[in-house]
Amino acid sequence: MPKLLVRHPEQGDLTFTLSGERITIGRRVENKIQINHTTVSGYHAELVSHNGRYIIRDLDSTNHSYIEGIMFIEAELDRGCRLILGTVECDFLPDDVEVLPDETGSLRKTVGLLRRQNDELIAKISEQKNQIDILGNVKMLTRCATSDLSSLREKVKTLTHERDALLEENKSLCEELHELRLLTGRGGSVQVARRAAGGDAVANVVQSRFAVPMGETVMVPSPLAVLPAPPLGSPFHEIASLNGKLRSQATGLALHPGDRVAFGELLSRTNEMCRIAAILGPHPVATITANLDALLLDASHHAGPLGQRTLQTAMQTLDFLSRLLTHDMLSRADHLPPSIVIAVDGDKDILPSIVSLLELASLTAIGCPDPRTAIDTLQDNHCDVILLDATLLDAGMPDICARIRALSKHGQTPILFLTGDDSTQHRNRGEMKGANDFIGKPLNTFELTLKAHTWALKNRLDVA
Hints:
Blueprint: E1 3-8, E2 12-17, E3 23-27, E4 33-36, E5 45-50, E6 53-58, E7 65-67, E8 70-71, E9 74-77, E10 81-85, E11 88-93, H1 102-136, H2 143-184, H3 235-255, H4 260-277, H5 284-300, H6 308-324, H7 327-333, E12 340-344, H8 350-360, E13 364-368, H9 371-380, E14 385-389, H10 400-405, E15 415-419, H11 424-432, E16 437-440, H12 445-461
Parallel strand pairs: 12-13, 12-14, 14-15, 15-16
Antiparallel strand pairs: 1-2, 1-11, 3-4, 3-5, 5-6, 6-9, 7-8, 7-10, 10-11
């Protein structure tokens, strides 16, 4: 039977065997994790057995739920994965885990162990740096404090060396794992990190035909550019090959958006690219592909026509990936620190949600409630993307974009309008006022995080 491994911060790991019944998961105020079989009141998520598999649903608590770092409302669990259910962290462990060849299985376990050790080391380094910062701000350091400061610095150096060594060994093991995949002929079916939703049957989730609404047009992507390819045999080469096929499929879908079979094939191939990219860890290519996969999966769960916004965002992302997957760009994109995003929105209820979503997507976010606060913040801080509520332009500061462009640090910083009017006429007016792109309201979480990551990388790598 499948199991749910709950990671309690004080009591350690708690294992629950799932026997087919419906259960709910939550945490009480006194930090007590509960598994309940009869009620959903006050809980974060629920697991329901359906046709031999488990469906997980977010219960709309005050905290969101995530699968492998991606927020969800409902998903089917058909493989092992890491879950964050509100404030409860746990692992879903199916009883039908695929048995891999001994060498491959051993390497996968080693890579997983190294990643956990790496996370622990990074957490320790962060804790030590925080202690150093606190001691550094004290005006009068005692002899004891000075000694402690020196000791902490030595510990940070040691931990940093250990982390770098683990990263190198991790990279070497990933390369060996890829070679084993090629030797055993398993191709993309050997995975180090698995997706919690989707899979090979992802094309079957599209149940309705898609059509372009009256009066809307779909932008056809530009012809495929000839760019330097990544090294043969690397995961980047496989991803680049799939990305080229996806661009061609997206072009066909833009011309015939009502073709549900074409959309299913696009979903399936995007999921395959995401599974291959999972081996890259926190590399920007893996981040972009995971967010694109989440956007398309979310679109497939909605009845009715495929939205123009979703299709255009997907095509923009695929065009950007074709430029990112080149020799010089890959080397420049490696080991980049988190991007910084400034979000400007006058709605006091929406702004905190935007900041939280960006931070959950591993972006550093700063929220500004009005344009004047944004200008003051931008004068003193660098950022990679600016999200600007378009309604503020009509609320007394129509020249906000021009004032941002006049700042020495932000002459070329991308500005994305948050707007409820996504018409072509509104987009043209917005471009005249200095906008680089648009994110529609009501906000789609997956569109927001995908565009923020993409435009931040474009800005940092100077990709046109």
